[in-house]
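Objective 1b: paired records.
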Amino acid sequence: MAEPSDLAGWLERLERRHPREIDLGLGRVGAVADRLGLRPFPAPVLTVAGTNGKGTVTYCAAALAAAAGRRVGAYTSPHLLRFNERIALDGTPADDGAIVRAFEAIEAARGDISLSYFETATLAALWLFREERVDLAVIEVGLGGRLDATNILDADVAVVTRIGLDHREWLGDTVEAIAIEKAGIARRDQPVVLAERASPGTLEPALAAAGARPLRAGREWSWTAAAGELAVTSARGRRFTVPLPDALEPANVAAALCAVDELLTLSPGAAVRALEGLVVPGRRERQPLGSGELWLDVAHNPDAAAGLAAALRRAPAAATHGLCAIMGDKDLAGIFAALAPELASLVVCGLPGNARAAPVARLAAAAGAAGVAAVQSAPDLEAGWRLLAPRVAGGARGVVFGSFFTVAGIMPQLANPATEEPACARG
């Protein structure tokens, strides 16, 4: 079969080629990495795992290192609008041609080894980072840690963010079991920054068994936040006072700063420049809409929903109206219970063509059972947007949440906001 000529063709091939969307294990992807000469990796590696916050840590760490004058490659997943977002060099997504060259190199090296979409994407990022001679690779774990494709590299510094219940069919039914999977990114004698002051009881024993060096928030390093500022004392004893972006959790920003400080000498001025005004796409991202404001948040589990609810409480609004579509394997009751007190109304939407999405009727029932007021249903995001947008544009706040698919599906609507509420939504 002829190779695709463009990125869209390659992505279509990857989506249909491997029999399993999620196929944990390091054997196949590690073998291809070795054929490509990616191990040992020629630059320091910072690997970030966790249930919530790992994307924020990755973005912040990459920005901090770039502000210090380093050439930085950052790998994140999933993307919102374009695959290119996953592979960034100094904050700029890789162009189509560069990614295609990486896919071609992987195809030539893999032989008869079958690779999943995520495994191929991971190898493409590492291949490009090597070709671009980055000074630091910041790698966000996709799922878990121990058996995730990103774990083919040895982390010089690791970060573990907040651990909660998610992806239980692959990682385990308890936070204690999931913590052991996350700890799998640790390496002997290397530091592991723990973002949370309290962690599941199995995490530190797992790190000790790996021979890693835990840097625990509140013990080896510390942070405080007040009045829009974050004060961090790193494990090296260096002190930083930096602006705290409104949308970001202080523990995650602080963990990124502590981790980068383990790898390079970061000046206080560079840290301030990196974090001032930093926006992480889809993480409590705020957009004006008429005389109101729209929040976009990919929160898709109870812990993330609770964090979003707390952020909404810290920024009072006349009224908050929600819109969501959520995957069917998520804890719907926990998500809606966390957000119910903050929502004056909620539109639940379907995602036609997405087999994983929860049916609209199930979403509506779960939201109602959790006490969410004024629940309406829409067959898809476009119809849901026609219900939500007029309420927000009139001076209220809207919040879109539930999945990367949901936020990505609403982003194009922002270019053409509705201004009149449909008759069926009135009253």
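Objective 1b, second protein:
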Amino acid sequence: MGKHIIEEASRCLQCKKPLCSKGCPLGTPINKMIGLLLKGEMREAGALLFENNPLSVVCSLICPHENFCEGHCILGRKSSPVQVSDIEQYVSRYYLEQYIPPRPAETKKARIAIVGSGPAGITVAFILALKGYRVTIFESEEKIGGVLQYGIPDFRLPKDILEKLRRVLVQLGVKIRPNMLIGPVVSLHDLLRDGYEAVFIGTGVWNPKPLRLKGETLGNVHYAINYLKNPDVYDLGDRVAVIGAGNVAMDVARTALRKGAREVTVLYRRGEEDMSATGYEREYARLDGVRFEFYRSPVELTEDGVVCVRTAMEQDAEGNSRLKTVEGSEHLFEADSVFIAVSQNPRNNLAGIEIGRTGLVITDEEGRTTREGIFASGDVVTGARTVAEAVRCSKRSAQAIIDHVEG
């Protein structure tokens, strides 16, 4: 592994205007990190990554690198790009394992509540704790990580990484209250009453988006995001159909094969070029044995599978493409179990702040909600996005919290 990392790092051209950093939502200083690594300054390289992105160790594994850093590497124009993800994972994991928390100059008295410990909540917790604030995380599940823990399979993100992050948070003095869903019993108002000078909401998107089709409540129909929380409690049978086109659909399909399904097929109403899953994730799904059926649109769910119609693209008089249903094409796609993987919405359990029509929290660009002292960012504000984008927004929110408390 070390030899591969050095070989890849040595390929870096050390561009004066690194396009890899421009392609990263967080502007990760990749060339500087690689330069430090090659000089033998591994700890300094890790610190550079961690200070820019506390979840560098996670992003290095699950970012769509072909769209971000690696997709912008100048070497990729004529050969293969530098495998930034491998280098970043090696350096950031080393740094986390050797982590020694710095002693803040002073422990600030301000107490901050963080609701939800997904990418957004963890990012804000790290930034504020390192500044000396007293941070308490309220997590509705038993372990921290949110979507990283309960929405991404182990084969994409080993969960020991999240345990390392938890350990570092505790070392920094962060208190964690697991199995604590804010809303039904304890409200946002209660947190402000108890002396928290700011509350940050990073609760993500956990309610599956339904198709509203006949048969959606049948016993062999499941929502993808629910399945990924604990796949072992499901009996799927041999043949599985997955309705959807994003990375969650790929994760469910690949997990189902690993858990014993003999045949897993992704059904999508458009063509492959329109799928929101990255090319990288689609190719890995194919390698695992996932099948794809394009231009099939579900109209009903049954205990025998999915009733579909065939679709096709056509151009209207103005030359615009639109999807049309092929007449007389209705047919049954046989399956023992069916997964619905067509996006998620937030839980509607937080009162006292303004929520948009789709259930997303309304904030300004810095994450301030409509109520003084309450902030939010990540998927609960933007809808499902990448971890890197959640970290970028949350860094701004952390600064807004500091400005609010200090101001």
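The chain has a mean pLDDT of 95. The longest strand covers residues 305-315.
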